[in-house]
Amino acid sequence: MKLNVLTAIIASSVMLVSCDTKFSNTIGKTDPENFEYKVDRFADIEVLKYQIPGWEKLSLKEKKLVYYLAQAGMSGRDIIWDQNYKYNLKIRKALESIYKNYKGDKSAQSWKNYEIYLKRVWFSNGIHHHYSNDKIMPEFSQNYFQQLLNDTSTELEPFIVDILFNEEDNKKVNLDESKGFISGSAINFYGKGITDKEVEKYYSGKTNQDSDRPVSWGLNSKLIKNEQGNLEEKIWKSGGMYGAAIDQIIFWLEKAVSVAENKPQAEALKLLISYYKTGSLKTWDEYNIAWLKATEGNIDYINGFIEVYNDPLGHKGSYESIVQIKDFDMSAKMEVISKNAQWFEDNSPLMPEHKKKNVVGISYKTVIAASESGDSSPSTPIGVNLPNADWIRAEYGSKSVSLGNIIDAYGQAGGTEKLKEFAYDSQEVELSEKYGELADKLHTALHEVVGHASGQINKGVGTPKETLKSYASTLEEGRADLVGLYYLYSPKLQELGLVEDWKKVGMAAYNDYIRNGLMTQLVRIEPGRDIEEAHMRNRQWVSAWVCEKGQKDKVIEKIEKNGKTYFKINNYEKLHNLFGELLKETQRIKSEGDYQAAKDLVETYGVKVDPKLHKEVLERNSKFNLAPYKGFLNPVLVPKVNSKGDITDIEVTYPKSFAEEMLYYSEKYSFLPLEN
After folding, report:
1. Of 77, 265, 427, 637, which is least surrounded by CB within 10 A?
2. Residue 73 and residue 250: Cα distance in Å, rounded?
């Protein structure tokens, strides 16, 4: 029966691509030798494409596995939209209806602004900016929008129309404690009227049979108040909340099991299916352990409710999927870091009691992304380290990957003019041009492999989300950054054969990090705004702390030259030592669960922006017409079937535009009701 359903779905997907006039010209092969990386540019965003090098070398069975995993990932796409905001699916349906059916003047500026707004909403998986978390405000009037609704016979409740233009639900994730983390956030993880204290009390009351192996309570549920006023969870599982989409995920995961590369991979997939069917977080832990042990094979994946950055209280996981193909050449080169993880831990500046005696199971690969969905698309990470549970990391290690083709696509679409504008002198430019790309890849590897795997929490201290609360995410990312920074300026890298000149690689890495942390990342912030996103905060608090602590010896000097500000590193050795001091303190904060120290560190150095410097950076950056944010179209994998319905091959194809892919996704993967 399932084989017949599969055949029907494949046949319908092929018909959708090749026969439906709305999509007849949207999908087509692209010549790899003349690959156009740039697809679209609007507002503060540029949309790119990425290639899947080596696809033709995969066996048919491997291609099927990638395809089934990709379909599973895409099937959960609507989940992230609903998680991001409870009205997002209704809003998207209305916006797309207008876009497809409007017959009026499309040369008018108001219509052009409407198209930009829709693209921004598509890119952010909802009406809040994917990075700043601020609500995206339309640059057209409410009256014009109402006219579009009327002209296209599109329905959207008046109160939702009002929300698009007013100050309600203005921040997706609020990190200002004074406003209330939950009450100030539009994220759809908690029901109306629930307070921060109620959530903390509810989850602190959850018991663990084994206190050393705590369950990730709340990871896969929405917390609401029932009719009696008591808190209860709506579990994201088959038969529960998001069940219609999860059933589709399960369907494709079961197909993936049938073509798994080996038994450990198949067993891990079966546990993931069981987790989706039951919602059991104990099964989720069992799955993560099995997934960690499944290290053989050329195909891997990420699928589930994973990162908790979008929950200001750090409990709820956003839906995410990445399908990966091993990059054999780069993985072989980077494996050396994994094999020496214990050396890095033993020689780190951490307090002895905070070091792991046995760093186990670290797996690092450079991979080729083949499909991304949920919280990983269109805006994608370049490196991933999972699982997130500290006790699993301690006992079983972690998998770390670097998305090599994504990094390459960024490089192919970039330039050096911005570097020349913000670098202090020609020597700094030359170092970055010659060593910057290698330094960046090494920093990603050290961050993911050694950084996230290093250190241990003191016995009896709760998990970071319990102890450090809203500061847990940025502290963890900063801690991992600091591990990478500390070892980037180390002769050990040359000894391991990873670099030819460790000092110059380290100098390039330090220059680039400080320049970005204190200046160039500010192009992503609107004037007058604080820094909200966890990674941006960590880059600033790391950079600002070492800058301040090194003032006496002028380790880093703030210089004005020709009316422009620069940050010049005068002593790389002392900066290396400062990174070590900050790493030691950051690990202490995590190990001891020191909330006040975490708050002081982040709020003092990582949140506020110097308005004068910010204005200058924005003015200097404006001449480049560069988008501060980039994201990606996914390739569309198209199965070729014979007369019997059997897959004979799977082709990699691409939409011609960002809009076409987004409409294609809404047509094919909209499994959820508009209210959940």
Report:
1. 427
2. 10
* DSSP 8-class letter at 476: H
Cα–Cα distance for residue pair 228/643, rounded to 1 Å: 58
Token duo for residue 574: 């002392």
pLDDT at 31 (0 to 100): 58
Please give the Cα distance from 106 to 358 (Å, whole number): 63
To the nearest 10°, report the CA torsion of 563, 569, 570, 573. Answer: 170
What integer pLDDT is reported at residue 20 of this predicted model? 36
d(CA 231, CA 193): 11
To the nearest 10°, report the CA torsion of 467, 470, 473, 478.
-90
Helix (H, G, I), strand (E, B) or coil at 66: helix
- Long-range contacts, stretch 271-274, CB < 8 angstroms, 24+ apart: 272/303, 272/304
Q: For residues 17 and 638, is the Cβ–Cβ distance under 8 A?
A: yes
Q: Cα separations (Å) of 673 from 82, 98, 181, 299?
A: 10, 20, 28, 32
In whole angstroms, what is the distance from residue 369 CA to residue 627 CA? 23
User: Cα(102)–Cα(110) distance, rounded to whole angstroms?
Assistant: 13
Strand ranges (E), 287-374: 299-305, 319-326, 363-374
Q: In angstroms, how far apart are the furthest CA atoms of the chain?
A: 77
Distant-in-sequence, close-in-space partners of 148: CB < 8 Å, separation ≥ 6: 98, 102, 104, 114, 154
Whole-number Cα distances in Å, 633 to 38, 118, 166, 376: 10, 16, 31, 11
* CB contact at 8 A, 448 and 385: yes
Model pLDDT for residues 177-206, shown as the tens digit of each residue: 999 999 999 999 999 999 999 999 999 999
Q: Are 566 and 575 in contact (CB under 8 A)?
A: no
Computed from CA positions of residues 523, 440, 630, 408, in that sequence, does the dihedral angle turn out positive or negative? positive
Report residue 486 CA to chain centroid gap.
24
Structure tokens at 291: 């997934």
Report the Cα–Cα distance between both ends of the chain, in Å, rounded.
Answer: 29
Measured CA distances, 261 to 254, 272, 323, 364 (Å):
14, 16, 14, 19
227 CB-near residues (< 8 Å, 6+ apart)? none
- Tokens 């959940």 belong to 676
User: Which residues pair with residue 559 across a beta bridge?
Assistant: 566
Residue identified by tokens 């290690």 is: 397
Exposed, middle or buried by CB within 10 Å (0-12, 13-18, 19+), for 417? Answer: exposed
pLDDT band, residue 241 (cuts 50/70/90): very high
Neighbouring residues of 228: CB distance < 8 A, sequence distance ≥ 6: none
Separation in Å, CA 290 to CA 268, 269, 393, 398, 517: 5, 9, 13, 11, 37
